[in-house]
Amino acid sequence: MVNLGTLFGQASPPLLGLDISTSGVRLVELVMAGKTGIRLERYASEPLPRGAVVDGNIENIEQVAEAVRRVWKKSGTRIKLVALGMPPASVITKKIVLPAGMSEDQLEMQVESEASQYIPFALDDVSLDFEVMGPSAGSPDDIDVMLAASRKEKVEDRIAIAEAAGLKAVVMDIESYAARAALDRVNLQTAGAPQDQIVALFQIGAQVTHISVMLDGETIYEREQPFGGNQLTQDIVRAYGMSFEEADAKKKSGDLPDNYQAELLTPFLENAALEITRAIQFFYTSTPYTRIDQLFLAGGCAVTPGLLETVASRTKIASAVVSPFKGMQLSPLVREQQLRAEAPAYLVACGLALRRFD
After folding, report:
1. Which Gene3D superfamilies does this one have (predicted)?
2. Sign of the C-alpha dihedral computed for residues 316, 291, 206 and 227 taken in this order
3. Integer Cα distance of 221 and 211 in angstroms
4. Per residue in 213-247, pLDDT tens?
């Protein structure tokens, strides 16, 4: 069996979370603070050239490795072991039910046999991993096992990037799993959080919005929509004749002409809220569920001025922007005001860094 290196494996501390997205790379280092606390020791980001990563696929390993090298140096860390994430679209996951009481070798053989039914390509081309979830609810004599598989080349690309940057990949997670781990930790900070809650997480990236809906922490729905912050950047490019890089920088700094808000920002916010509302309606029509109790926004686009208010107004659902570092102590190296503005973009990187404490 080819191991995913390891998708569900135990992390060996110390460990960095390293998120490689379409727009850039983000690094997070977490350390223990006391017996139960966590401290954000350092975090950093570095932009990627357009086209270096497209739809989760690494198109230019050298450019991405160079960005990883720069972000590692910028952060000031000395740790070289990293947890990386795979895009959800690149990983096939399937919960299977197997008889309890098998040895590790028997379980491995059975998982590989079952995997051939769900994977549409040769097992020799696949990195495969699994995790025993526990007793099966439907049968006390069986166990639930989560199977995960990805094309070997996609895993190897990310490992090669880490190695080219002088780092070593020791954990390979799924980005959506890492995001949910970070969100679960944030939700645990809320004392007395009610049970039976349906929570929707919208991670709005540069090109894609990833939607996860959870019931009591278990994922009940997941999909992606081709919508992201680059649409606003492209509007700025067309309206003011800037380069993409200049438009993106001025979008973040707010250094734009007086008509920007009325003519570009407000229509973008309305469009974003419409995309989210449509996604929610699709969730209602394609599942047995008819409500969402809490909506969270994350990703680099989540802090766009006015987005949270527009989404809350259109959806009529309690909405908040996620800060994955909520409740953590902060290192003196971390500037709190800057962190507040940037934190939602670090949800995946934070979730990857949390693998240190598995």
Report:
1. 3.30.1490.300, 3.30.420.40
2. negative
3. 8
4. 999 878 899 999 999 999 999 999 999 999 999 99
Under 8 Å between Cβ of 314 and 277: yes
CATH architecture of 90-152: 2-Layer Sandwich (3.30)
Q: List the beta bridge partners of residue 91.
A: 150
Q: The sheet that has 329-330: what strands, in order across it?
A: 168-174, 81-86, 16-20, 24-33, 37-47, 329-330
Contact 356, 13 (CB under 8 A): yes
d(CA 23, CA 140): 46
**Cβ–Cβ < 8 Å for 33, 26:** no
Q: At what angle do helices 230-240 and 244-253 cross, to 10 degrees?
A: 110
Distance CA 108, CA 61 (A): 33
For residues 33-64, one letter each, b for 16 or more C-beta atoms within 10 angstroms of the residue's C-beta and e for the rest, the string is eeeeebbbbbbbbbebeeebbeebebeeeebb
**Strand arrangement, sheet containing 126-136:** 91-99, 139-151, 126-136
Whose tokens are 């190695």? That residue is 163
Closest residue by Cα to residue 26 from 270, 351, 355? 351
Token pair listed for 178? 């890492």
Using a CB cutoff of 8 Å and minimum separation of 24, what contacts does 250-258 make? 254/305
Phi (first) and psi of residue 131, to 5 degrees: -140, 135
The whole-number pLDDT of residue 158 equals: 95
Domain boundaries, the chain: 90-152, 193-322
When the candidates are 3.30.420.40, 2.60.120.10, 3.40.605.10, 3.40.30.10, the CATH number that belongs to 193-322 is 3.30.420.40
Q: Is-cis flag, bond preceding 14, omega within 30?
A: yes
Report, as ranges of residue numbers, the positions in the chain whose pLDDT lies below 50. 1-5, 8, 11-12
- The predicted model scores a pTM of 0.90
Count Cβ atoms below 10 Å from residue 246 Cβ, excluding itself.
Answer: 14
Residue 27 has a pLDDT of 98
Q: Residue 116's pLDDT is what?
A: 83
